[in-house]
Specification:
Layout: E1 3-7, H1 12-23, E2 29-32, H2 40-50, H3 63-67, H4 77-86, E3 95-98, E4 101-104
Length: 115
């Protein structure tokens, strides 16, 4: 079964997760999501597999978080998803997908649960 990683090569956790996958014998499809951001529909699919709400996948310490007004707790899931597409840096990483399962590589070893 194919494995996909939503990867940011500048992120140490993302690099560690990719290396861990390779050590486990997997050669995942690498999607550099900052260059190729997922659509709202793709994010919904990822969130469903992760069993998370959009706000749980936000990187709240990024400058774009405050600039986009995402600290407003009245925002809808759709508004948060649109902000994540517009500012993919806000998406927590790395995300590893295998079939109908997904895991957030924080810590990297967490992805081993879905292999």
């Amino acid at each position: 079964m194919n494995i996909t990683i939503y990867h940011n090569p500048r992120c140490s956790k993302s690099r560690q997760t990719l290396e861990l996958l390779r050590q486990e014998g997997a050669e995942p499809e690498v999607i550099e999501y900052l260059q190729n951001p997922p659509s709202v529909a793709e994010l919904k699919t990822l969130l469903n597999k992760l069993k998370l709400k959009p706000r749980q996948l936000l990187r709240t310490k990024e400058a774009e978080y405050k600039q986009a007004g995402l600290d407003d707790t009245t925002l809808s899931d759709e508004e948060i998803l649109r902000a994540m597409v517009a500012h993919p840096k806000l998406i927590e990483r790395p995300i590893v997908v295998k079939g109908n399962k997904a895991a957030l590589g924080r810590p990297p070893e967490r992805v081993l649960e879905i292999l």
